[in-house]
Write a structure and sequence with these properties.
The protein is of the alpha/beta class and 122 residues long. The protein has one domain (4-121): Rossmann fold. The chain is 43% helix and 22% strand. It has five helices and seven strands; from the N terminus they run βαβααβββαββα. It starts with a strand and ends with a helix.
Length: 122
């Protein structure tokens, strides 16, 4: 059962963040696109126990805010953390109850914000 669904289309970013989260004790499931993430969320076996979703703002085939709106339709209670280098994107998430992180994001800051999102949802 994964704790975290990590979504990023950059293989390097995905691998680095996955290693950081695993070293912090999280079980991690990864996806490289919004479509793949939705498929994983539709699979009860793969997504059972999911505690937080961490996604990049820009994904192939979907902007982060529209993807988060779709996620909210599927899993409205799972906390979502959005990571981006585009500071101007934050207003696009108004009302979606997400945690917004700006790149570059230090590993300890990412871990702290994920733990906070999980704690708030508990």
């Amino acid at each position: 059962m994964p704790d975290v669904l990590l979504i990023d289309d950059s293989p390097v970013q995905l691998q680095v963040r996955e290693a950081v989260l695993r070293s912090a004790g999280f079980s991690v499931l990864t996806a490289t696109s919004a479509e793949q993430a939705i498929e994983l969320l539709d699979d009860p076996t793969a997504s059972s126990g999911l505690r937080v979703i961490v996604t990049d703002h820009v994904l192939p085939g979907a902007r982060g805010d529209s993807f988060v709106r779709e996620l909210r339709g599927l899993r409205h209670t799972v906390p979502v953390v959005v990571i981006t280098g585009m500071h101007e994107a934050e207003p696009e998430y108004a009302g979606l109850e997400i945690t917004f992180l700006h790149k570059p994001c230090a590993p300890e800051h990412l871990i702290m914000r994920i733990r906070q999102a999980i704690d708030r949802a508990a």
